[in-house]
Amino acid sequence: QVQLVESGGGLVQPGGSLRLSCAASGSPFNTIVMGWYRQAPGKLRELVATITINGKIVYADSVKGRFTISRDNRKNTVYLQMNSLEPEDTAVYYCMANVYWGQGTQVTVSS
Questions:
Q1: Nearest to 91 by CA among 15, 24, 36
Q2: Nearest 5°: phi and psi at 101?
Q3: Is residue 32 predicted with pLDDT exceeding 90?
Q4: What is the pLDDT of residue 28?
Q5: I want to staple 16 with a disulfide (CB 3.0 to 4.6 A). Which of 6, 12, 23, 88 is the partner?
Q6: Long-range contacts of 85-92 (CB under 8 A, 24+ apart)
Q7: Can you tell me the distance from the alpha carbon of 55 to that of 41, in angstroms, rounded to the nearest whole number?
């Protein structure tokens, strides 16, 4: 049984920053791809960023230059540093590792 435990969500003002973390644990498996997706109310779940075990990174155009994804392979942990947050970034952020998903963490950007 694989578990993904997310942390770091919350409420922040526009222009602020948050850092999300997601640790994968459970049955031994090779976390080839880890990353983040998000889903805003009334919208489909969308890609935010992914990173492979070799460090190849993909960002959604909407977050390029503001968000940074990284991972610690020894800890099976992926991070998402979010800067210059905008109200449009408000969503539930989901961690993913290969085919597994976390429970989601709420990020709200509001003044």
A1: 36
A2: -130, 145
A3: no
A4: 60
A5: 12
A6: 85/12, 85/14, 85/15, 85/16, 85/17, 85/18, 85/109, 86/14, 87/14, 88/62, 89/38, 89/63, 90/40, 91/38, 91/39, 91/40, 91/43, 92/38, 92/39, 92/40
A7: 31
